[in-house]
Prior knowledge:
The protein is mostly helical. The chain has one domain (about 15-75). The chain has four helices and no strands. Helix 2 packs across helix 3.
Amino acid sequence: xxxxxxxxxxxxxxxMDVKILLAVQLYKEGKLTLKQASELAGLCIEDFMKVLSEKxxxxxxxxxxxxxxxxKNANNF
Length: 77
């Protein structure tokens, strides 16, 4: 179970917008997995991936080590 945090935002910003923006930023920083971020945003993974695309954030959020490992695995096929 996670933390409950209350923040006050201007009336013109919806709760959904705040959740999505927070989820995108935390995903971008590598603090949340794709699944965790989509749950925080209140979206299914596919819809969250569309949001990431709209915001020009890569769906593939690997560090250099993970990327090299995937390239090595791909070369084994």
